[in-house]
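User: Here's a chain of 82 residues. Predict its fold as tokens.
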Amino acid sequence: MPRGYEEGPVAEEAQARLDALEHGESVHRRKPSSTRAAVFGSTEDEAKPHFLGWADEVDADELFERGRAWGLSLRRVSAQES
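Assistant: Prediction complete.
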């Protein structure tokens, strides 16, 4: 049964990581940009979507599967913002 976020930005980011690994590239490289992909979602402590971590540092799938977060999305934000 599909979960909504699997067909969106989180899945695209995961596929980009797999593609990079297949081509021998580092998955931790950052684009020369002042923005970074951030994971936002809701948690038991805070129902309103909020910053959970940087996409290259947080495993969004694991957060969802363990029930620790839901309504996950990726957003491009300033690298100095959190």
